[in-house]
Amino acid sequence: MFKVVLNRDNLEKAMLRRNLSCKLLANNIGLSPSYLSRIITGKQHPTASVRQTLLDYFKTYSFDDLFTIQENGVDERD
User: Fold this and answer.
1) Any residues with CB less than 8 A from the CB of 55 and at least 6 apart, and which?
2) pTM above 0.90?
3) Per-residue b/e over 52-67, b at no fewer than 16 CB within 10 Å?
4) What's the DSSP call for residue 47?
5) Strand, helix or coil at 73?
6) What is the pLDDT of residues 6-50, one digit of tens each?
7) What is the arrangement of strands in the sheet containing 74-75, beginning at the earlier edge strand?
């Protein structure tokens, strides 16, 4: 089974470059701050629509910049 997880470090760098807090980013992309926080902390995995929303918002970042695909909980990059 595959799952897509957020690359927290890269998202935080992207947010820092735009001077965005979690709350401000959530408001800008139409998510609740608590939902976005759960995604950033890894407590919840982003849905396909959330992944696309983040990619649309951070246009200079690719899928591979912001997300990692894992199989059975193992990072595919290892």
Assistant:
1) 61, 62, 63, 66
2) no
3) ebbeeebeebeeeebb
4) P
5) coil
6) 999 999 999 999 999 999 999 999 999 999 999 999 999 999 999
7) 2-6, 67-71, 74-75
